[in-house]
Amino acid sequence: MKEYTFYNILLIAWFIVAIFVFLFLLRFTAPYGRHSRSGWGPLIENKKGWLIMESTAPLVFFAGFAVGNYTNTITAIIFLALWELHYVYRAFIYPFGLRGTKKHMPIAVMCSGMFFNAVNGYINSRYIFTFSGGYSNEWITDNRFIVGVTLFIAGSLINRQADRILRSLRSRGETEYKVPYGRLYRWVSCPNYLGEIMTWIGWAVATWSLAGLSFALWTITNLVPRARAHHAWYNQQFSRYPQERKALLPSLW
């Protein structure tokens, strides 16, 4: 089987699997963070788990760039930079900003994250740097690229701002959860997830590809159910939780 045929089969399957995973996650919240629970097998320290599973994405994507046929345009370099900057932060900076006592995640969750990042990195990098036929330098003046990159950057800023607010809630050694306030937390419980979804919708628009769309769909698949679970958890844990807040979309949901 030629790689291009394999690629297309994988891409179709990836869309189908996302739908089933979404339905599963609406019923069963992934067991890490505040939703950790026993019965999911051996554990790994949270920071190590995040580093291992998230570092898969920049490594696989860079490998796709390294062996790609269309990597010598400004557009290709920008796509590489956007992806790598996002995942260098997610793998090598974000985990080490987590505060409180050492927490753990199931190794099964870490491995599923590694698998997702490997497949997702392959699908996106192989399309952009090989199967797309190349993005010309003129693509950076296309409205789709401009709107997409703007969404990507805006989403990344929202995500990181929300992460900073969450980190500031605890001093070193503190373990209890607190209600975050400020910025988009005024309107939604999970602005970090809203920012992440915006980021990868922006990627889908900027690349104007089914590969990018698959990533946006998977981001929604993972984060919409988790935002729903977070919002319900906050309301259960804190009797005076702001009732005007929605889970993910201001004034809507």
Quickly list its features.
single chain; 253 residues; mainly alpha; two-stranded antiparallel ribbon; globular
Structural notes for this entry:
The mean pLDDT is 92. Helix content is 64%, strand content 2%. It has one domain. It is mainly alpha-helical and 253 residues long. It is built from seven helices and two strands. Helix 4 (107-131) packs antiparallel against helix 7 (210-237), helix 5 runs antiparallel to helix 6 and helix 6 packs antiparallel against helix 7 (210-237).
Helix and strand layout, with pairings?
Layout: H1 3-27, E1 43-45, H2 46-66, H3 74-92, E2 104-106, H4 107-131, H5 143-168, H6 191-207, H7 210-237
Antiparallel strand pairs: 1-2
Helix pairs in contact: 1-7, 2-3, 2-4, 4-7, 5-6, 6-7
Quote the distance from N terminus to C terminus: 45 Å
Largest sheet: 2 strands, antiparallel
Give the helix tally: 7
User: What is the string of helix and strand elements?
Assistant: HEHHEHHHH
Give the helix/strand class. Answer: mainly alpha
Helix content: 55-70%
Runs with pLDDT <50, length 5+? none
Number of strands: 2
For the largest sheet, list the strands in their spatial order: 1-2
Structurally, how many domains make up the residues? 1
Strand content: under 5%
Mean pLDDT: 92
Spatial shape: globular
Rg, please? 19 Å
